[in-house]
Amino acid sequence: MLCQVIWKIVYGLLFQVVFRRMDPERAHRGAYALIRLAGEFPPARAVVKRLFGPQRGTRRAQANQAEGPKLFGRTLRGPLGLAAGFDKEAKAVKGLTALGFSFVEVGTVTRFPQPGNPRPRLWRDVKAKSLRNAMGFNNAGAAAVAGRLRQLRAANGGASYVVGVNIGKSKVTPPADAPDDYFSSARHLARYADYLVVNVSSPNTPGLRDLQQVSALKPILEAARKGARKSLKEAGRQGEVPLLVKIAPDLADADVDAVAGLVNELDLAGVVAVNTTVAHDQGKGGLSGPPLKSRGLEVVARLREQLDSGRVIIGVGGISTPQDVREYLAAGADVVQAYTAFIYEGPAWAGRTQRALRAEAQV
């Protein structure tokens, strides 16, 4: 516990003195490189896990861990995972898991490689502890990311990592051809994923959010499912990869209900709620962090009322504290994700949050 307090203080000083003065994207690249590097070397990974990750603790703690939350048949160390956007290239899953995240959602991954939008495209609002991004799905493309995930799964212990893959439409693809994009990405990636997320809710690809309308969304989801099934068939596997859809907080309640109805109709695994919001006056891009929390909770609660029993809700938006996690779970989320708080609170944050939630479960 003392070690965690020290790390929190040290990171707070580093953020104020060093990181705050750096370009946000440059700071992200540096932190990402360090996490990736630490994850690739077993001795370094063990040290990171010991310093920052959820500790094994007592036998009672281990028993509670064995009875932890479930996600598509996998038992998690806790309810907190990392949202898509941090590890766009699927290079840092090992390091991020060592830091305490129970699962990592990589991406957003597109069919074709793309550089993303022109810089600057990432901004901080330190006072609100929020981030605003207009990244534009910068990534190496589905084939390249699939190759990295193949290497991860083939490595010793690679099957133990719980990995979701978030897929989106390439900027060069016309909206009318979006189903082909999602089919192709799913075909490349599904065999390596514990679950697959169809992202139609980023504000940073022109026209993408229009695809949340049920008439446009249904053929996309059907195409992604066909691609996922083909991926498993080509790998000689049976079954289904759980398929979810990620929606924006800016949808009207009636549109949230319509998406929930489509998820029920197509027998999808569930919904990730919510993405970033454009309901702000700070400039271009989507806003994440604490300003999202209120609407995120509303959308999760509404989805829980509308979705059939057994559908999974991954709650995300404005989660910074164990209390925020509890509120999302109480609203109806099965598990949660975060990203922005990780940037502001530092490497010890995920493990510290998981331990606090675990300690409460033991009382």
Q: Give the C-alpha Rg.
A: 19 Å
Helix content bin: 40-55%
Measured between the Cα atoms of the first and last residue, the distance is 18 Å
CATH superfamily: Aldolase class I
Unreliable segments of 5+ consecutive residues: 56-63
Helices and strands, in N-to-C order?
A: HHHHEEEHEEEHEHEHEHEEHEHEHH
**How many separate structural domains?**
1
Could you say what the CATH architecture is? Alpha-Beta Barrel
Tally of contiguous helical segments: 13
What is the tally of beta strands?
13
Q: What fraction of the residues are assigned to beta strands by DSSP?
A: 5-15%
Mean of pLDDT: 91
Global shape: globular
The neighbouring-strand order within the major sheet is: 3-13-12-10-9-8-7-4
General description of the model:
The structure is a single chain. With 363 residues, this protein is an alpha/beta fold. It has a single domain, classed as TIM Barrel. Helix content is 45%, strand content 15%. The strands form three sheets. It has an eight-stranded parallel sheet with strand order 3-13-12-10-9-8-7-4. It has a three-stranded antiparallel sheet with strand order 5-6-11, with no helix packed on it. α6 packs parallel to α7 (178-189). The longest helix is centred in the middle third of the chain and has 21 residues, at 214-234. The protein is globular. Residues 56-63 have low confidence and may be disordered.
